Amino acid sequence: MMLGLAVRNPEKPMIRHWSGGAWRTTTWRDFAETVARVAAGMRARGISPGDRVALVSDSRPEFLIADTALMAIGAVTVPTYTTNTVADHAHILRDSGARAAIASTPRLAERLREAAGHGGLDLLICLEEAPGTTSWAELVATPGDLAMLVAEVQHIPEGRLACLIYTSGTGGTPKGVMLPHRAMLANRAGVLPLIQQLGLEWKGACYLSFLPLSHAYEHTVGGSLLLSYGIEIVFSRGADRIAAEFQEIEPALVTAVPRLFEVLRGRILAGLEKEKPLKRALFERTVALGLRKMDGPPLNLLERVQDAVLDRLVRAKVRARFGKRLVAIVSGGARLDPDLSGFFLALGINVLQGYGQTEAGPVIAVNLPWDNRRRTVGLPVRGVEARIAEDGELLVRGGLVMDGYWGDPEATARALSVPPGEAEPWLHTGDVGTIDETGRLVITDRKKDFIKTLGGDMVSPARIEGLLMGEPEIAQAVVAGEGRPSLVALIVPAEGASADKALQRINGKLSGIERIRKWAEVEPFTVENGMLTPTMKVKRRVVLERHANRIGALYS
């Protein structure tokens, strides 16, 4: 698909990224020709079909080039976060059996070398010059035959494994989700009608990408799906620049996790605090009327007149901050609070909540601008079946579903089930929800105890709690953070001890998304107060409910 697009549209802009103080453009021809050379360079250095290759890089053209080149020669890419600890990388390298890795910086290359340990990696490539590595420049200098590669990839079966994307599993240990080419192609086919209805196939439409390409959501949506419709991808310079980039880039589409909306709302409200009382009153009235239009009761004649005036005085200025060509911002990766999305919708910004999982390609459902039910995650995309199991868990199936977890048949059997008399497996999402009378999915809870942060990251509280309680200063601990921007902890210190130094030690061992940002001392968990089972296991849900106010205070 990707190389075919390059053959048909060689001069069309494909990627825009910031380098050397300016925006640089990569055309589809540039992309494809470099893919052919990198593919040849990989083969010359012993990479064969089925080999797993870790890809640890920030979002840049080389990521997509390497990803495509590896899949084109039958290798399996293992996209991995740049923020992972050495221990995280060690687990992924060991579990996947990766014999090669690509790092974007010398620091990451050294981290991978340390993670690989004794025996090391057969091949370590760095996008920048780094001692003891094969340079990206050497790969790109390898002669490549694009026509031959294009002919060769026509024979790749859609069921071939394309990538392993690691996600937290039931026991807290990251598991490799096996996504075949079929899963990502099924996502593309499912989203096609939505792209057509959104009218994004016009010349010059671009997509602003700020999530890392190692994130399953961005790997599919930004890395191939939107590109396949001819929409240029622009890599953001970071969350701190994205507000300015809305105006500078004027994207048609942005996909994001809920944390971005929290940041943007905070900036809007902070700016509002500096305005005169009249402007603040007009803004608040605009939001109130906007919410009324969505939720009722209907506006009366006077209110409709007010709303029309405020649309020009207030909403037009807010919309201008997001660029003149914005069609929608699609939120996924974690639950988007309806009040948060309602804030933007009331101001005339099309915020659409979607739903998906790494194990499903990852797009399962999404709302639409002209039919946006913000308390749902929308209708399943074309080709996706959904049903609710007896215990309330949402099950889905279709071509987008993974093949299973790498090297873990037991976890695969728990996640995928084939009912008697049926051929295709149902994916057990781990989410509890309902399907409303219109067919839209409503997610109400997590069946498992995993924490899904506001940024869409999945974190195992059990693992972190185990580390905390392994410290002499900490007797008991419960970690919280579902739907929040970061993790906090409720801690019962050991008698006469302070937990501060223990927290510092543990945070030094954890990745960025796992670190405890704040904590509160609470009473001991006992059988008598209902927070321990008779077998002395902490009742996490009871503890979290009992201390909901304390947790809320930590985020205030």
The helix count comes to 19
In CATH's first tier, which class of the largest domain applies? Alpha Beta
Beta-strand share of residues: 15-25%
Low-confidence spans: none
Radius of gyration: 24 Å
| Secondary-structure content class | alpha/beta
Give the rounded overall mean pLDDT.
91
Query: Mind describing the biggest β-sheet?
Result: 9 strands, mixed
N-end to C-end Cα span: 48 Å
User: Strand arrangement, largest sheet?
Assistant: 2-1-11-10-12-13-14-15-16
> Got a strand count?
27
User: So, the CATH homologous superfamily of the largest domain?
Assistant: ANL, N-terminal domain
Q: What CATH architecture of the largest domain do you see?
A: 3-Layer(aba) Sandwich
CATH names the topology of the largest domain as: Rossmann fold
Protein name: AMP-dependent synthetase/ligase
Pfam families: AMP-binding (PF00501), AMP-binding_C_3 (PF23562)
Keywords: ATP-binding, Nucleotide-binding
Domain AMP-dependent synthetase/ligase: 7-406
Characterization of this structure:
38% of the residues lie in helices and 23% in strands. The chain is an alpha/beta fold. The protein has three domains: 2-239 and 249-256, 3-Layer(aba) Sandwich (Rossmann fold), CATH 3.40.50; 259-446, ANL, N-terminal domain (Rossmann fold, 3-Layer(aba) Sandwich), CATH 3.40.50; 460-555, 2-Layer Sandwich (GMP Synthetase, Chain A, domain 3), CATH 3.30.300.30. It has a nine-stranded mixed sheet, sandwiched between helices. It has a five-stranded parallel sheet with strand order 4-3-5-6-7, sandwiched between helices. The two termini are 48 Å apart. The relative contact order is 0.08. InterPro entries: AMP-bd_C_sf, AMP-dep_synth/lig_dom, ANL_N_sf. This is AMP-dependent synthetase/ligase.
